Amino acid sequence: MTNTATTSNGKLNFLRVAALLAAIGSLISPLLATGPLSGSGPLHAMHGMVGNLNFVLALVASIGGILWGRASGNKGLMFHALSLPLLAVIQIALGQMHLTMVHIVLGFAYLLAAVALFTLALRKPRA
Fold first, then answer.
1. Considering the entire predicted model, what is its pTM?
2. Membrane-crossing residues (predicted)?
3. Which of 47, 75, 61, 49 is nearest to 118 (CA)?
4. What is the CA radius of gyration of the chain?
5. Residue 90 lies in a domain
C-alpha cells in the first residue's frame, strides 16, 4: 500500500520537473526569435519548433498541476498550470497569423507564467 504523502510528493516533483522544462523552453524561444525578426530562415523554423515543443511541455505541466491539485486540494497552482497550454495555443495562432507585436507581448507573458509556475511549485510545501 502506498503512503499518501509519498504519492503526493511524487506528484509535486512531477509538477516541478514539468514546470522547469516549460520554463526552459519559454526562455529558449525568445532567443531564437531574433532570427525571425531579422529575417533569418533556419532560426525561424527552430523558433516555430520550440514553440510547438513549448505547447507539449505546457500540456505536461498542466497534467502535473492537475495531479498535484487533486492530491493536495490546492487548486491555485493547478489553475496556473492549466493556463499555460491555453497561452501556448494562442501564442502559436498569433505567430501563424503573423501578428508579430501581439505575439511578442504574449510571448513575454507566457515566459513569465512558465517561470512563475516553476518558482511557485518550488515554494509549495510537501503534502
1. 0.87
2. 49-69, 76-94, 100-122
3. 61
4. 16
5. yes
Grid cell for residue 55: 505547447
Burial class (CB in 10 A: 0-12, 13-18, 19+), 74: middle
Work out how many domains the chain is built from and give that number. 1
- What does the pLDDT read at residue 56? 97
Is 94 among the domain residues?
Answer: yes
Neighbours of 90 (CB within 10 A): 15
Q: Is the pLDDT of residue 61 over 70?
A: yes
Residue-wise pLDDT tens digits, 63-112: 999 999 998 888 889 999 999 999 999 999 999 999 999 999 999 999 99
Q: In percent, how much of the chain has pLDDT > 90?
A: 64
Is position 127 within any domain?
no
If we measure between CA atoms, which residue out of 40, 11, 19, 28 comes closest to residue 121? Answer: 19
49-55-60 Cα angle (round to 5): 125
C-alpha 26/C-alpha 38 separation (Å) is 20
Alpha-carbon distance of 13 to 121, in angstroms, equals 9
